[in-house]
Design goal:
By secondary structure, the chain is α/β, with parallel strands linked by helices. The protein folds into 4 domains: about 130 residues, Rossmann fold (3-Layer(aba) Sandwich); about 170 residues, P-loop containing nucleotide triphosphate hydrolases (Rossmann fold), CATH 3.40.50.300; about 70 residues, Orthogonal Bundle (Helicase, Ruva Protein, domain 3), CATH 1.10.8; about 45 residues, Arc Repressor Mutant, subunit A (Orthogonal Bundle), CATH 1.10.10. Strands 2-1-3-4-5 form a 5-stranded parallel beta sheet, with helices on both faces. The protein has a 5-stranded parallel beta sheet with strand order 7-10-13-6-14. It is flat. About 30% of the residues are buried.
Length: about 475
């Protein structure tokens, strides 16, 4: 049996469009010592809420407007299969509740809710969660279980070991006030990592994000440092910059590799001295905001070209982490595909399609140069054209364009391979001839080199003689 502390700390979602049902169920659970509860009256808000915080249990009404409980159950089971769901149903809908059990609901409770029945069902579900956690013995689960604050990474979908190692590193550096440099290809989730670092830092100020690509020096200075009245034509009022808005918090500078050299000098001063000048002012201001910078470029290669300052690289990279591309996180591909298909179907008000294994296999060989962002866009486009049945590769334009899609292309490819490689028959003849030449015609020695018996070699030699 679970301790009262374990029960109290576990988050429970209650989803029902009727306020009096929400209140009744919430009150019942709180009287049983379960205080960590979020109530949701609009079914459309469930997935958005789960993006921010994952519950250990969901109590879900079946009859709701917008997205009914049965459809929402399918989405939750597909995207978050380990979260148990208890469905609430009217007496006339028991058949539907049984159908939901087949889909994956753990239990159902008939309305009007009997307190003892509800509490028994909830405790059983929480015991189930506890049992699942106890027997998670895969290396990935062990690695994830060592993370002290998994809530900080709940918005990142992964079971990849490299990503979990990065999570451990982030937990170690989060309390530091020093800059962090986040490297990785476009679309790998650098901003999400910035959010995790800020969350774990427990800094009281806000997380403020800005993309510095394409900003000239004046716009950069005004955006970051602000200006005083009269700083330039049209500057009638003082304007605080983003660095001031991030006071006591974190400033996330995206695409730092594209920052102009003149702006790099000002950023360097901010990092070194913790001070800056608003445009038009000679009064120095001080900043306690932590800097996180990200880029998909090689800063050292830029430094060699003279377009990025070496001293700024050193200042930015006190803590550095590199996110792996999606093609190196293939274990995550089915999870991400499931999530994005469900999200797109929800947004486009379409049925949730099944994902065949063949589609995942085809995607595993796709390069994903735009990484997770590209996958999400591909899925949204495919689901927008989806009609019925499993979702297939022909709905993904990029997959179709990437693979050989005509007999002519396949013939051309086969022709190129023929030119590049000998046939097995040709290779076999060449090996036998080389072995015989190397041993001066000694069949025993040649057979030993080839790893076959002398009798087998003798038969091959006779066959070659007949072919000649």
């Amino acid at each position: 049996m679970m301790s009262s502390k374990q029960t109290k700390d576990r988050l429970i979602f209650i989803v029902d469009d009727e306020p009096h049902i929400l209140m009744a169920v919430e009150t019942c659970l709180k009287m049983a010592g379960m205080n960590h509860i979020i109530t949701i009256s609009d079914s459309r808000d469930v997935i958005r809420q789960m993006e921010r915080e994952l519950p250990c249990l969901m109590i879900l009404d079946l009859n709701m407007p917008h997205i009914n409980g049965e459809r929402l159950l399918k989405i939750v089971r597909k995207t978050y299969p380990k979260i148990p769901v208890i469905v609430l149903t009217g007496a006339i809908d028991v058949d539907t509740a049984v159908k939901c059990m087949k889909i994956g609901a753990l239990d159902y409770v008939v309305k009007p809710v009997e307190e003892d029945r509800l509490i028994a069902s909830v405790r059983q579900a929480l015991d189930y969660v506890n049992l699942e956690n106890t027997f998670q013995d895969s290396p990935v689960s062990d690695l994830f279980s060592q993370i002290k604050n998994p809530k900080a990474f709940s918005h990142i979908i992964t079971q990849d070991k490299k990503m979990h190692s990065i999570f451990h590193y982030i937990e170690a550096i989060a309390p530091s006030s020093k800059p962090v440099l986040v490297l990785g290809e476009t679309g790998v989730g650098k901003e999400l990592i910035g959010s995790s670092i800020h969350f774990l830092s427990k800094r009281k100020g806000k997380l403020v994000k800005v993309n510095v690509a394409g900003l000239d020096d004046n716009v950069f200075s005004d955006t970051l440092f602000g200006h005083v009245p009269g700083a330039f034509t049209g500057a009638d009022k003082a304007r605080s910059g983003l660095i001031e808005q991030a006071a006591g918090g974190t400033l996330f500078l995206d695409e730092i590799g594209d920052l102009a050299l003149t702006s790099q000098i000002k950023l360097l001063r901010l990092l070194q001295e913790r001070e800056y000048l608003p445009l038009g002012s000679d009064r120095v201001k001080h900043s306690d905001a932590r800097i996180i910078a990200s880029t998909n470029l090689d800063l050292w290669a830029l430094e060699k070209k003279g377009s990025f300052r070496k001293d700024l690289i050193y200042r930015l990279s006190t803590h550095t982490l590199t996110l792996p591309p999606l093609r190196e996180r293939l274990l995550d591909l089915p999870l991400l595909l499931d999530r994005f298909v469900c999200q797109a179907a929800l947004e486009l008000d379409k049925p949730i399609p099944d994902i065949p294994k063949t589609l995942i296999e085809q995607m595993e060989s796709y390069p994903f140069k735009g990484n997770i962002r590209e996958l999400k866009s591909m899925v949204h486009d495919a689901v927008s054209r989806y009609q019925e049945g499993p979702i297939t590769a022909n709905l993904f334009k990029s997959l179709v364009a990437f693979g050989p899609d005509s007999e002519t292309e396949m013939e051309g490819l086969t022709g190129d391979l023929k030119k590049a490689l000998p046939t097995l028959k040709e290779a076999s003849r060449e090996l036998v001839e080389k072995a015989m030449k190397q041993t001066g015609g000694n069949q025993s020695a040649a057979a030993a080199i080839l790893g076959i018996s002398q009798q087998a070699l003798s038969k091959r030699l006779q066959k070659l003689k007949l072919e000649d």
